[in-house]
Design brief:
Number of helices: 14
Order of helices and strands: EHEEEHHEHEHEHEHHHEHHEHEHH
Radius of gyration: 20 Å
Strand order of the largest sheet: 7-8-9-10-11
Oligomer: single chain
Strand content: 15-25%
Bound molecules: ligand MZD, manganese (II) ion
């Protein structure tokens, strides 16, 4: 079986447990996110708030050897056929729920400094997204400018916001301006900003998996219909780990709304919602066949494959068989686009993936 070399638009770094306590004064470090292991549940403490997450021993059992070690990770990637990765946080995701301004600002800075010193400065293949404070827009703007200087290529925000902080609102405008001006990608990873287990009845595991997908769609509807992307044509957003098959479909739905309910629409847009989506909205997937099929059937091309390394939902250990299932028989230009081209376009990188 020929090896298909790819880039991954959705991976994760596993931060050391002391990523904040090592870098912050005790009065702040003690309030930073920390995890404790119970029998069946992992207890997460974030600034005094506790979130219990069901622990799967299988989650640890399948953890790739390189999850916590960059050198070993690069060997994992060679084995799996992944050249570059955009790496989101793991524990860093929980920073989005901090509402205390100073704690949010300092824990975000500490995480970004760790990522810059321990990942970005030590290799060229794994590029981490930077965290931003959701507690204060001015702090977020300052951090965008700081991390752009440090060489980050992307920042991320949670898919779900607190009520009254929806992404269509004017309050975010300074941040959209800063991210566009810095030329960074704005990533939204599914399952962030809200409870991930919302239903415990029959089918709960699958229902909850799906429930984390819908807020990614809501990000797109707010940022397109609210005018943010129309006002900032160079701002590119990525909905990570939510699949891509749904993206052109919501473009059609939004066009219909825009036309059939035109008398209610404001702001008016300079382009149809589907045009804005095709130009500025990107999406990643791991296993979905539909994410590849819609490129040919709809012409929506901002589809990017992701390995979700080292998470259970990813492809570690079966990357090549997954890639062959997805791309054998698919036209070369579509395979190239989805496995490498979208990544290189989004992060403005020359193609360095080995050609087998
Ligand atoms: C089986 C039940 C119904 C039983 O209920 P019970 O707990 O006994 O009362 C329930 O436990 C369940 O649904 N368990 C399945 C596992 C799960 O937690 N599902 C959440 C929906 S899926 C999810 O949120 C993904 C997308 C996929 C799982 C990992 C996930 C939570 C990761 C994990 C956690 C955190 C959030 C994160 C990135 C992160 C750093 O790694 C994503 O943002 C989001 C992601
Ligand atoms: Mn992921």
């Amino acid at each position: 079986m020929t090896k298909i070399w790819v880039n991954s638009g959705d991976s994760h770094v596993m931060e050391p447990a002391d990523v904040w306590t090592e870098r912050l004064p005790a009065r702040l470090g003690a309030r930073a996110p920390r995890s404790e292991r119970g029998e069946k549940y992992e207890m997460l403490y974030i600034d005094g708030e506790r979130i219990d997450r069901q622990l799967g021993d299988f989650m640890d059992a399948m953890r790739p050897p390189g999850a916590w070690d960059l050198k070993v990770r690069l060997k994992d990637l060679d084995q799996e056929g992944v050249w570059s990765q955009l790496a989101f946080p793991s524990m860093g995701f929980w920073l989005v729920s901090i509402t205390d301004r100073e704690l949010a600002r300092e824990t975000v800075r500490a995480w970004n400094d760790w990522a810059h010193e321990e990942i970005l400065s030590k290799n060229k293949r794994v590029i981490t997204t930077a965290c931003l404070s959701t507690a204060d827009i001015d702090d977020a703007v300052a951090e965008v400018e700081r991390v752009a200087e440090l060489g980050f290529k992307a920042v991320f925000l949670p898919c779900s916001t607190r009520p009254g902080e929806e992404y269509a609102l004017e309050r975010w405008e300074p941040l959209w301006t800063a991210v566009e001006r810095a030329g960074l990608v704005l990533g939204f990873h599914i399952g962030t900003g809200a409870q991930n287990v919302v239903f415990r009845g029959p089918g709960g595991a699958v229902v909850n998996y799906m429930e984390t997908t819908y807020p990614g769609m809501r990000v797109v509807s707010h940022m397109v219909a609210g005018g943010a992307l129309d006002r900032h044509p160079d701002l590119r957003i990525l909905i990570a780990e939510g699949g891509a098959g749904w993206v052109p479909a919501i473009g059609d739905r939004m066009d219909e709304a825009y036309r059939q309910h035109g008398m209610f629409v404001r702001p008016k847009l300079s382009r149809l919602p589907s045009e804005i989506i095709r130009q500025q909205v990107y999406a990643s997937f791991q296993h979905d066949k539909s994410s590849v099929e819609i490129v040919e059937s709809t012409g929506y091309r901002n589809v990017m494959w992701g390995d979700d390394y080292p998470h259970l939902e990813g492809t570690y250990g079966h990357t090549q068989s997954t890639l062959h299932d997805l791309f054998d028989g698919v036209p070369d230009d579509i395979r190239e686009r989805v496995t490498r081209g979208t990544f290189n376009e989004l992060f403005r990188l020359p193609d360095q993936t080995p050609q087998e």
